[in-house]
Recover the amino acids of this structure.
């Protein structure tokens, strides 16, 4: 029987048994929501970054970074072998656009760079072995680009095509995603305004237009306009990810533009369009909340960097903090939305490392620092960064970008980032689902197919709730499972921010599920500490406390349908030894007296917004 005849018989049989056109017996066959969780890093530097190269990473390339992320063992700058216990699913190598690949090419006497005005300016530094001044030239290019020449257009174009093609060469659709990307590095008066730019596209599209750098403009509005031009010119797609607001001295989530004009509809619309996610945690400190802003939140004092800006040029003042931390920014966004009709700070939350030694190592027991000088060894506790940028013991082993997507491809992961179905962790692979709706039943979390209802009757992390039924309050599903290789869970929380009728902004932290037989305080609703199993002498802990999974359906008891609000979740682990305590036990070093010895890693889940 021929193939067409066989097909006819098969269709006839299907019709006879009532199959054709019938509902699927296999329920998942009819569902198209994201079922897979992918782990990655959207912010990593290699020898192609001028600061990484001048501070010691002279040999590990983007190709090495991708190989390492996929699970290969490499030799670190300190001579140790380094490997991930669990490879990443995706990686963005985000080398600085300013002098991209320039220092490496300069020191191998590549005429593409040595013949430029910048290359000739660097010759005296090279000849004298003055790497500090060379690093200074890079830093100055981020603050005073007019007096520090950029590479010619053709040089930038050729270098960028090489970078994009290298990324394509390491992309493995379905198994490992290598994103093309770079970092736009603006540092006005020493204040951090950096963004990572991520492409959905391959080298044939992304390679057509060189990166927009801080030497083109230090104003984020000009970056956003450049991204719009890229999309119009190529048909491609791109987003930007801001980071380290804690080192911006009040400029990351501002009330006015860099030239002193009040934030208006144009700024708000541009930022909302091009920056759907924010990097809330990384090696240079955690940026979720601050105890000065959230004094009633006992977990807000976590790995805060709050003494000055990235350039070490100005001390921190309290007024700056509300314009630096994600929770405060989310609240400010509600005010802008009410005033302008658009929320410039409507962002999902991710973490990444910002490592500069080509290794993505966000976990406490495998942390290889930020630069080569902070790789493991007895010296890294005492060492101070070149130029006295910061003390090594303050560096944070963080973080991960977690993405819910349909498959491990550039398109699927990028689309998830744009719709904000993502979350951050500070170094653990905690698995979290978070949904909001109007009619989730309290027992829904006990149903094996709860996801069908969660997606069907509500919105996932990053979504919007609108049009509440009469008398209804928003209801949230929060399901969290421990990292299989990590610590048990202490508690899950939902953080609410809202704008009242008088225009005042508020916040409240709700403990919604927790481990053990602890009881919430009847007056405050707070749950006491989980305890600790950490043995400081040998830097170990065990999972004899905490829970492997916490799940809850929670209804907002304080909902006002006339008030704008957002809700995001925070999942907190039991204490474990901090990476510095690991170093103390392994290398026999002494730690500063005021240094935390334990850490409670956590996940920050992208918000769900309610707009009247």
């Amino acid at each position: 029987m021929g193939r067409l005849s066989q097909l006819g018989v098969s269709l006839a049989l299907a019709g006879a048994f009532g199959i054709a056109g019938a509902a699927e017996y296999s329920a998942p066959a009819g569902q198209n929501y994201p079922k897979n969780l992918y782990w990655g890093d959207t912010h990593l530097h290699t020898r192609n970054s001028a600061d990484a190269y001048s501070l010691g990473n002279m040999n590990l390339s983007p190709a090495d970074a991708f190989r390492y992320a996929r699970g290969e063992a490499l030799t670190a700058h300190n001579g140790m072998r380094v490997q991930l216990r669990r490879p990443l699913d995706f990686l963005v190598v985000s080398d600085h656009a300013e002098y991209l690949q320039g220092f490496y090419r300069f020191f191998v006497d590549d005429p593409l760079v040595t013949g430029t005005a910048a290359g000739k300016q660097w010759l005296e530094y090279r000849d004298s072995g003055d790497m500090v001044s060379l690093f200074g030239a890079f830093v100055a290019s981020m603050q005073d680009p007019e007096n520090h020449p950029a590479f010619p257009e053709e040089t930038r174009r050729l270098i960028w095509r090489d970078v994009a093609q290298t990324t394509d060469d390491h992309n493995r659709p379905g198994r490992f995603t290598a994103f093309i990307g770079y970092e736009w590095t603006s540092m006005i008066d020493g204040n951090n305004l950096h963004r990572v730019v991520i492409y959905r596209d391959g080298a044939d599209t992304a390679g057509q237009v060189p990166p927009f750098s801080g030497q083109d403009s230090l104003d984020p509005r000009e970056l956003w306009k450049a991204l719009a031009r890229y999309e119009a010119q190529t048909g491609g797609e791109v987003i930007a990810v801001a980071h380290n607001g804690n080192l911006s001295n009040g400029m990351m989530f501002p009330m006015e533009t860099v030239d002193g004009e009040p934030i208006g509809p144009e700024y708000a619309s541009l930022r909302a369009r091009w920056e759907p996610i924010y990097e809330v945690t990384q090696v240079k400190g955690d940026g979720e909340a601050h105890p000065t802003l959230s004094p009633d939140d006992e977990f807000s004092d976590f790995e805060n960097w709050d003494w000055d800006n990235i350039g070490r040029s100005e001390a921190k003042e309290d007024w700056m903090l509300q314009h630096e931390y994600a929770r405060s920014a989310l609240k400010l966004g509600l005010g802008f939305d009410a005033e302008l009709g658009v929320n410039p700070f409507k962002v999902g939350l991710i973490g990444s490392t910002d490592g500069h030694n080509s290794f993505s190592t966000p976990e406490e027991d495998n942390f290889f620092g930020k630069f080569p000088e902070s790789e493991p060894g007895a010296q890294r506790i005492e060492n101070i960064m070149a130029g006295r940028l910061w003390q090594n013991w303050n560096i944070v082993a963080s973080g991960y970008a977690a993405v819910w997507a349909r498959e491990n491809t550039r398109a699927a992961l990028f689309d998830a980032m744009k719709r904000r179905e993502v979350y951050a962790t500070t170094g653990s692979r905690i698995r979290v689902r978070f949904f909001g709706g109007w009619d989730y039943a309290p027992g829904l979390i006990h149903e094996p197919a709860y996801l069908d209802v969660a997606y069907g009757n509500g919105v996932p992390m990053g979504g919007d709730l609108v049009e509440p039924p009469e008398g209804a309050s928003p209801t949230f599903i929060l399901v969290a499972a421990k990292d299989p290789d990590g610590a048990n869970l202490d508690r899950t929380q939902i953080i609410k921010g809202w704008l009242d009728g008088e225009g005042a902004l508020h916040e409240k932290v709700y403990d919604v599920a927790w481990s053990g037989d602890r009881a919430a305080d009847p007056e405050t609703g707070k749950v006491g500490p989980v305890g600790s199993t950490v043995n400081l002498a040998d830097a170990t802990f065990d999972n004899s406390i905490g829970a492997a999974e916490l799940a809850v359906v929670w209804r907002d008891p304080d909902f006002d349908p006339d008030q704008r609000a957002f809700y995001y979740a925070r999942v907190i682990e039991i204490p474990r030894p901090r990476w510095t305590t690991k170093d103390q036990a392994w290398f026999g070093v002494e730690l500063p007296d005021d240094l935390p010895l334990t850490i409670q890693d956590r996940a920050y889940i992208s918000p769900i917004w309610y707009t009247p």
